Prior knowledge:
This protein is an alpha/beta fold. The chain contains 10 helices and 10 strands.
Amino acid sequence: MAEIAKTSVEDIELSLFLEGIFRRYGYDFRDYAPASLQRRIRKCMRDEQLHTVSALQDRVLHDPAAMQRFLHTVSIDVTAMFRDPTFYCAFRQRVVPLLRSQPSLRIWHAGCAAGEEVYSMAILLQEEGLSERSRLYATDMNTLGLDKGKAGIFRLKAMQGYTENYQKAGGKRSFSEYYSARYDHAIFQDSLKQNIVWAEHNLVTDRSFNEFQVILCRNVLIYFNQSLQKRVHKLLYESLALQGILALGSKETLQFTPYADCFESLDDREKIFRKVK
Length: 277
Ligand SMILES: C[S@@+](CC[C@H](N)C(=O)[O-])C[C@H]1O[C@@H](n2cnc3c(N)ncnc32)[C@H](O)[C@@H]1O
């Protein structure tokens, strides 16, 4: 009995907390999938050494720096260069031939974290001779990640894993040609950065801002509940040109969305779709 009462108090606190954040800062987490959101909120409570969600609410609402820390914890920024290498192989084989006939390419990376996948795409486009006509839009709600991406400086330690991914992804050169090492960091070439536009964009509360030939929104929708996924699918659909390409994460799907019939699958396993109506 005591257990049930405790759980329900925390549920009330959680919903007040999320409502408060939305009203105070405009970030809307109310329709995120509850299990992983709760785990992140508990992590934030531990980091802040607070024992209740109400205490966290008090701190976050009164202290914008605490809100930034909360945002950083709640935005799960796990990523890697050439993450899921087979995805990039499929992109080279099935999508690149379709892009060759396009005079200009706008590619949107929605929820790009610190831009590791954006640099992967910039490298792929350079190797396929498509970078001259491409512009990459790298967006996320978390500006800390975007600043990191803009600088193009990543931990040198990560390069070994990234090199293996790059090779498995069908990379055509030596991966180390794309960066110079300084102390314990890898600084990526300016030529990769010149076509990238970095911008804050929240998939829950912001609108479409252009029409794209390719949209990658990988490993973001898994954090949303069904109704929010539906809303974001609408945004992605409306932002994509006819015959445009949509790439989702390996655990994400178009099935059961109102847009399932509007796409044909180019690669079922790698979740690459083409908008046909
Ligand atoms: C797990 S990372 C995925 C990064 C990259 N797309 C990949 O597949 O490697 C999820 C990203 O989604 C972002 N995100 C979560 N909710 C968002 C929202 N409402 N609007 C924009 N980005 C969001 C997080 O900040 C985080 O950077």
